[in-house]
Write a structure and sequence with these properties.
The chain is an alpha/beta fold and about 250 residues long. The longest helix is centred in the C-terminal third of the chain and has 18 residues. It is globular, with a radius of gyration of 18 Å. Bound molecules: adenosine-5'-diphosphate (ADP) and magnesium ion. Magnesium ion (MG) binds next to helix 1.
Length: about 250
C-alpha cells in the first residue's frame, strides 16, 4: 500500500468494450489512477459517457479492468464497497424499511438484526414514521435518502455514490447536499461520489478528481481546503470561485 492512510488505491485502470459489430472495441478507460484516504470525501467528475460508472462497477466487483489494479489495503476477503448505483430503484411493493434492509439480507444478516440496524438510522435520514410506507409515498429527496440508508447500513469501508442527486430538482438537491455534508461530518464515511456538477463536488469534497472525455484519464486533482461545516455562502467565497473556475477550465478548456 503506497499510502498508509489509504483505504483505496486505484492504479492505471484500462477498459474497453466490444462495439456492436463484435470486432472493434471502444476504449473507455485509458489509465485511471487515484486514491481515497480513510474518512475522505472524494468526488469524481467528468463528461457524460467518459467512464465514471464503469470505474465504480469495477470497484464494486461487478466488472474487471483490462489492466491496472484496485487495492483496498486490507486482506480481508469479500466486498469492501457499498454501492449506490446511478439508477437506484427501490422496490415499489416493499415497505421503505424492507427496502433498506435488502443489502443486509442478501449478505445473510438475520431479518430482525437487519431491521434493528436499519431502523436506528431512520431518524438520522429524516425518514422517521415512514418505515411502513411504500416508496411511492415518499418525495424524491426522501427516496434518495432511503436508497442512501440502504447503502450506508451495510457498514462497508467505502461508499460509492453514483450521481446520488442527479434526478432531483435544484432546491431539493441543495437541501440534500447540505444534509449529506452534515451526516458525513457525523460519521466520517470514506466516500467516493460521481457527479457532473462542479459546485456540488467542491461544496462536499475534500478532493476532486477530474476525468477527461472518453477514453478517460485523470486530467486534474484538486484539494478543497475550505473549512467545514460549509454553508451555502461558501459558494461565493473567493477560494471557492477560484476552484470552480479552475475546474471549468479543465473540463471545457
Ligand atoms: N457493459 C458495457 N458494454 C458496452 N459498453 C459499455 C458498457 N458499460 C459502459 N459502456 C460504454 O462505456 C462508456 C462509458 O460509460 P459510463 O461508465 O456509464 O459513463 P459515465 O458514467 O461517465 O457517464 C459509454 O460509451 C458506454 O456506452
Ligand atoms: Mg454514469
Amino acid at each position: 500500500m503506497a499510502d498508509s492512510g489509504g483505504v483505496l488505491v486505484v492504479d492505471a485502470l484500462t477498459k474497453s468494450f466490444p462495439l456492436l459489430d463484435g470486432r472493434a472495441r471502444r476504449a473507455v478507460l485509458a489509465g485511471v489512477s487515484f486514491t481515497a484516504r480513510h474518512g475522505e470525501f472524494v468526488s469524481v467528475i467528468g463528461p457524460s459517457g467518459c467512464g465514471k460508472s464503469t470505474v465504480f462497477s469495477m470497484l464494486a466487483g461487478l466488472d474487471t479492468p483490462d489492466s491496472g489494479s484496485i487495492d483496498f489495503g486490507r486482506d480481508a476477503a469479500g466486498p469492501h464497497c457499498a454501492y449506490m448505483p446511478q439508477r437506484d430503484l427501490l422496490f415499489p411493493w416493499r415497505t421503505v424499511l424492507d427496502n433498506t434492509t435488502l443489502g443486509l439480507l442478501v449478505r445473510g444478516v438475520p431479518r430482525a438484526e437487519a431491521r434493528r440496524r436499519a431502523r436506528e438510522l431512520f431518524p438520522i435520514f429524516g425518514l422517521s414514521g415512514f418505515e411502513d410506507a411504500r416508496p411511492a409515498q415518499l418525495s424524491g429527496g426522501m427516496r434518495q435518502r432511503a436508497a442512501l440508508l440502504r447503502t450506508v447500513v451495510q457498514d462497508r469501508d467505502l461508499l460509492l455514490l453514483d450521481e446520488p442527486f442527479g434526478a432531483l430538482d435544484s432546491l431539493t438537491r441543495t437541501d440534500m447536499q447540505a444534509w449529506l455534508q452534515e451526516v458525513w461530518q457525523r460519521y466520517r464515511w470514506t466516500v467516493l461520489m460521481i457527479t457532473h456538477d462542479i459546485r456540488e463536488a467542491l461544496y462536499l469534497s475534500d478532493r476532486v478528481v477530474v476525468l477527461s472525455a472518453r477514453p478517460a484519464t485523470v486530467l486534474r486533482e484538486v484539494r478543497v481546503e475550505l473549512p467545514r461545516p460549509r454553508d451555502l455562502s461558501i459558494l461565493a467565497a473567493p477560494e471557492f470561485v477560484a476552484l470552480e473556475k479552475e475546474l471549468l477550465g479543465v473540463l471545457h478548456g
